[in-house]
Design brief:
Oligomer: single chain
Low-confidence stretches: none
Subcellular location: Cytoplasm
Bound molecules: pyridoxal-5'-phosphate
Order of helices and strands: EEEHHHEHEHHEHEEEHEEEHHEEHEEEH
Radius of gyration: 21 Å
Helix content: 25-40%
Cofactor: pyridoxal 5'-phosphate
Subunit structure: Homodimer.
Number of strands: 17
CATH superfamily of the largest domain: Type I PLP-dependent aspartate aminotransferase-like (Major domain)
Largest sheet: 7 strands, mixed
Strand content: 15-25%
Shape: globular
Number of helices: 12
Pathway: Amino-acid biosynthesis; L-arginine biosynthesis; N(2)-acetyl-L-ornithine from L-glutamate: step 4/4
CATH class of the largest domain: Alpha Beta
Number of domains: 2
Modified residues (N6-(pyridoxal phosphate)lysine): 243
CATH topology of the largest domain: Aspartate Aminotransferase, domain 2
CATH architecture of the largest domain: 3-Layer(aba) Sandwich
């Protein structure tokens, strides 16, 4: 008999009933150090007082009105995003993959309105992940995500990650945009070097096409800047945001320049829930924290500390780990042992990590993790590695 929940997930036998900061409490009372943060979602950790306050205050007043009316919380969040980023405008979604849908539509509509209807192709890269909608899986293009689900959507050209000549050669009169994660998350914490992001920006400018960045996982303070592309000194035309922006409340956004968004006039796109008062009240509270320069300084300081200690861990367990990769608090441990075994050994030692492609385990802790949490993280990862060595 099929499980009452559609069995599309491989779930660990863990039942968390409460969260506090960087810690999750299992139904049996055990405390787990959470270095996964719900896959980079709980940016301010669990039950952050400011987020609890924002959500409960809003819940007592108004949950939902629809986008038929003004939503002051949505306006406030859009204003904050516009103030702190390249963007002139924002559309709110409930998830990352919905942001992908709009990013693709927006890029194509831009050229349609300019009389270049043939420009529909979006260039994407192997190992990428843009969510599980039809456009999301067609953009990523991997067999793992698309096989058995009928025809993938046309209009995506899949390129080799890191092959800049391949990008140059792929740009034609049909190209609308390049879509890329500055740091691949699901793909195994693979960062696009700053120089390559600059090259992609230059190629887009040269050919008059749009640069779409997917910062769903790497954005919202995760790398120590508000958005990861800032490290490369470039800006996109369109950007997908989700995960951390809601701190655990389902919330996403597409940010864009006025020019890139010019095709999206009244009636061209919409969402029943997107930008609802609850999500946007929480999003405003998240933004107030992550845009504070002192907060980002702390992310960078702790990221440096964690990385340094992880290098030591890799050195101490060369049979289990190969290297540390990533940026800020978006770190990957490339494993020699099987990554799933390392994640499971972490569970045994009450530390949570997240597997990714390329035999990597991801560390995406709450950005609020403390120095003591970092010490605990290393102790537990060290125990997990020792367990694998002695198994
Ligand atoms: C998680 C993720 C998505 C999809 O977000 P959902 O909210 O799961 O739809 C898209 N892109 C990237 C880079 C992600 O990490």
């Amino acid at each position: 008999m099929i499980a009452s929940v559609l069995p599309t997930y491989n779930r660990a036998p863990l039942n968390f009933v409460k969260g506090e900061g960087s810690w999750l409490i299992e139904a049996d009372g055990r405390r787990f150090l959470d270095l996964g943060a719900g896959i980079a979602v709980n940016a301010l950790g669990h039950a952050h007082p400011a987020l609890v306050q924002a959500l409960t205050d809003q819940a007592q007043n108004l949950w939902h009105v629809s986008n038929l009316y003004q939503i002051p919380q949505q306006q406030a969040l859009a204003d904050k995003l516009v103030e702190h980023t390249f963007a002139d405008t924002a559309f709110f979604t409930n998830s990352g993959t919905e942001a992908c849908e709009l990013a693709v539509k927006m890029a194509r509509k831009y050229f349609y309105d300019k009389g270049q209807e043939q420009r529909v192709e979006i260039l994407t890269f192997d190992g990428s992940f843009h969510g599980r909608s039809a456009a999301g899986i067609s953009a990523a293009g991997s067999e793992k995500m698309t096989k058995g689900f009928g025809p993938v959507l046309p209009g995506f050209v899949h390129l080799t990650f890191g092959d800049m000549d391949g990008v140059t050669n792929a740009i034609t009169d049909s190209t609308a945009a390049i879509l890329i994660e500055p740091i691949q998350g699901e793909g195994g914490i693979r960062a696009v070097p700053d120089a390559e992001l600059k090259t992609l920006r230059a190629l887009c400018d040269e050919h008059g096409i749009l640069l779409i960045l997917d910062e769903v996982q790497c954005g919202v303070g995760r790398t120590g800047k508000l958005f990861a592309h800032e490290w490369a000194g470039i800006t996109p035309d369109i950007m997908m945001v989700a995960k951390g922006i809601g701190g655990g409340f389902p919330l996403g956004a597409v940010l864009a320049t006025e020019d890139a968004a010019s095709g999206m006039t009244a009636g061209t796109h919409g969402s029943t829930y997107g930008g609802n008062p609850l999500g946007c009240a929480v999003g405003c509270a998240v933004m107030d924290h992550v845009t504070d320069p002192a907060f980002l300084d702390e992310v960078n300081r702790k990221a440096g500390l964690l990385r340094q200690k992880l290098e030591g861990l890799v050195g101490a367990h060369p049979e289990v780990f190969e290297s540390v990769r990533g940026s800020g608090l978006m770190l990957g441990l490339k494993c020699k042992a099987t990554n799933i075994d390392v994640v499971n050994a972490g569970y045994d030692n009450q530390v949570i990590t997240v597997p990714a492609a390329d035999n990597v385990i991801r560390l995406l802790p709450p950005l609020t993790l403390s120095d003591d949490d970092i010490t605990q993280a290393l102790n537990r990862l060290d125990q997990a590695a020792t367990q694998i060595e002695t198994a």
